[in-house]
Design a protein that fits this description.
The complex is a heterodimer. Chain A is an alpha+beta fold. Chain A folds into two domains: 33 residues; 80 residues, N-utilization substance G protein NusG, insert domain (mini-chromosome maintenance (MCM) complex, domain 2, Sandwich), CATH 2.60.320.10. In chain A, 26% of the residues lie in helices and 32% in strands. The relative contact order of chain A is 0.16. By secondary structure, chain B is an alpha+beta fold. In chain B, helix 3 packs antiparallel against helix 7. Chain B starts with a helix and ends with a strand. In chain B, a hairpin with an 8-residue loop joins strand 5 and strand 6. Chain B is elongated and about 95 Å long. Chain B has one domain: Roll (T-fold), CATH 3.10.520. Classes of the chains: A alpha+beta, B alpha+beta. At the A-B interface, helix 1, strand 6 and strand 8 of A face helix 1, strand 1, strand 2, strand 4 and strand 5 of B. Strand 8 of chain A pairs parallel with strand 5 of chain B.
Chain lengths: 121, 314
C-alpha cells in the first residue's frame, strides 16, 4: 500500500504510451506512403490527381498532363515559354509545376515530411 | 480491490483512445491546410496551421485572393497618390539609387515586353528605348506589387484566429505566427541556376517575416548570344549590368519594402546595397553566377546553405 507506483499503474502507462505511439506511427506512415497531388486549374476548386491510375488527361483545351508510376508531368502545352513542359516529371512532396499563361498548376502537397513550408523565388 | 483497479484501468484506456482519436482527427492538434489560386499573373499558395479544425473551414484562400485582386486593381489603375505609402517608398528608393529604381517605367517595360507571357520579346532600338525612358509617364508597380500583396494577405489573416501561416505570391513569402510546439517556419530558396524544384538552401524564420527575391534568372530572353533579363535600370533603359550578381533575396518586416528593396539592391549591387538595407532595417542574401553567396547582417545565421554548387564568400 505504501508504494507510489503500483503494478496496475505501470500497465496503464504502458498502454497509454502504446496508443500514442500507434497513432503517431499511423500518421507518419500514412503521410509518407501517400503523397497527394492536386490539379489547380484557373481559380476553380482544386482536384486531387489519382497517382495510382496511369493516364494522360487534358487540364485545359491545349494542356495535356500525364500520370505514370506515381509521377506527374506536363506532356504538352500551347504556352510560348514551355516552362511547364521542360520541368519534366515531379513526384516529391513539395514539388510543383506551374503553367502561368494557362493558369494550370500541379502541386504535390508539402506535408510535414518534406521539411519545408514554402519556396521563395 | 482488484476489481476497482481494473475498472479505473479500463476507464483510462478508453480516455487514452479518445484522446488519440481526437489528436488524429485534428480536433486538438493544429490542422495544416494548403491551397492555391492565381492572382497578379502568378501562383498564390497558402499553408495554414489552425488552432482547431473549425478555423480551417472559415478561413479560405478566396478571401486572400480577393484582397490581392483589389490591390492589383489599384496598382494597375495608374499612378498612386503621392502620399500613398507604396508611392512614398518608391520615390525614396528612386532618390537613394540615383534613379536606377523607378515606379514610372511603364512605357519602357511595355517596350521591352519581357514580362508579357504571350509575346516573343526582342531588343528594341536605342532610339525607342531613349524615347520611352524620357516619357516617364506610365506607372508600373511590378517591383513592389507581390510584396504589397503579401502585406494584404497578412492583413486578411489577422482576423482569422490562426496559429500560423505561410503565403507565397509568386515566390514572395510572408510568414506569421508559428507551427505546432512553437517550431519555426522553413522556407526554401529556389536555386537560380537549377531546375524548377531545386533549392540552394533553407531559411529558418520566426513570427512575421517577409522574403522577397529579385533575379535575372526568372524572366529573360536571349538574342545574338546575349541574355536580356527583366530588371530594367532607370538610368540606362537597359537590363541592369550586375557584374555576375544573379539574385538578391531580402528579409524584411514589410512586404512592399522587402520586394522593392530586392529590386533596388539588385540594381545597385552589394556595396551600395548596404546603406539601403540599413535604412529599412532589412537583411539580404546575394547570389553570384560564380556560385559565391554573400549575406548582410544576421541573414547568414538564418540561412542554411545546402547546395554544393554554392559557397559562402565575404
Amino acid at each position: 500500500m505504501g508504494r507510489l507506483i503500483k503494478r496496475g499503474d505501470c500497465i496503464l502507462i504502458l498502454v497509454c504510451l502504446a496508443i500514442a505511439l500507434g497513432v503517431f506511427v499511423l500518421r507518419q506512415t500514412m503521410a509518407a506512403q501517400n503523397p497527394i497531388a492536386y490539379l489547380q486549374a484557373q481559380n476553380q476548386p482544386r482536384q486531387a490527381i489519382d497517382l495510382t491510375n496511369d493516364q494522360i488527361f487534358s487540364a485545359a483545351p491545349n494542356v495535356m498532363i500525364e500520370v505514370k508510376n506515381n509521377r506527374v508531368r506536363f506532356v504538352q502545352s500551347d504556352c510560348p515559354d514551355q516552362i511547364c513542359v521542360h520541368a519534366g516529371w515531379i513526384s516529391k512532396a513539395g514539388d510543383s509545376v506551374v503553367c502561368l499563361p494557362n493558369q494550370i498548376a500541379v502541386v504535390f502537397e508539402s506535408g510535414e515530411q518534406s521539411g519545408v513550408d514554402g519556396i521563395a523565388y | 480491490m482488484k476489481k476497482s483497479l481494473c475498472r479505473v484501468l479500463l476507464l483510462l484506456v478508453a480516455i487514452g483512445i479518445g484522446v488519440g482519436i481526437a489528436v488524429y482527427r485534428g480536433g486538438i492538434s493544429p490542422v495544416r491546410g494548403t491551397s492555391q489560386a492565381f492572382v497578379m499573373g502568378s501562383l498564390l499558395e497558402q499553408s495554414v496551421w489552425t488552432k482547431g479544425a473549425k478555423t480551417a473551414l472559415t478561413y479560405r484562400i478566396s478571401d486572400t485572393a480577393d484582397a490581392i485582386r483589389a490591390l492589383e486593381k489599384t496598382l494597375t489603375a495608374g499612378p498612386l497618390p503621392a502620399d500613398d505609402p507604396v508611392q512614398v517608398l518608391c520615390d525614396a528608393l528612386t532618390q537613394k539609387t540615383s534613379g536606377a529604381f523607378r515606379s514610372d517605367l511603364g512605357e519602357l517595360i511595355d517596350l521591352w515586353g519581357i514580362d508579357q507571357a504571350n509575346r516573343t520579346p526582342s531588343v528594341p532600338s536605342d532610339e525607342d528605348i531613349q524615347r520611352a525612358l524620357a516619357g516617364h509617364g506610365k506607372a508600373n508597380y511590378g517591383a513592389v506589387g507581390k510584396g504589397a500583396a503579401c502585406d494584404a494577405a497578412l492583413a486578411v489573416s489577422k482576423d482569422a484566429n490562426l496559429r500560423g501561416f505561410v503565403v507565397s505570391v509568386g515566390g514572395n513569402i510572408v510568414t506569421f505566427g508559428n507551427k505546432p510546439f512553437g517550431q519555426p517556419f522553413k522556407v526554401a530558396l529556389r536555386d537560380p541556376k537549377g531546375a524548377l524544384n531545386d533549392s540552394i538552401g533553407v531559411f529558418t524564420l520566426k513570427g512575421t517575416c517577409f522574403v522577397s527575391t529579385s533575379g535575372s534568372y526568372e524572366k529573360y530572353f536571349e538574342q545574338d548570344g546575349k541574355r536580356y533579363h527583366h530588371i530594367l535600370d532607370g538610368r540606362t533603359g537597359y537590363p541592369a549590368e550586375t557584374n555576375g550578381l544573379i539574385s538578391v533575396t531580402v528579409l524584411s518586416n514589410n512586404g512592399a519594402v522587402g520586394d522593392a528593396l530586392s529590386t533596388a539592391c539588385f540594381l545597385v549591387g552589394y556595396n551600395d546595397a548596404q546603406s539601403l538595407l540599413d535604412d529599412y532595417d532589412c537583411e539580404a542574401i546575394f547570389i553570384y553566377d560564380s556560385g559565391a553567396v554573400r549575406a548582410t547582417g544576421s541573414a547568414k545565421e538564418r540561412f542554411e546553405l545546402r547546395s554544393e554548387a554554392y559557397h559562402w564568400a565575404d
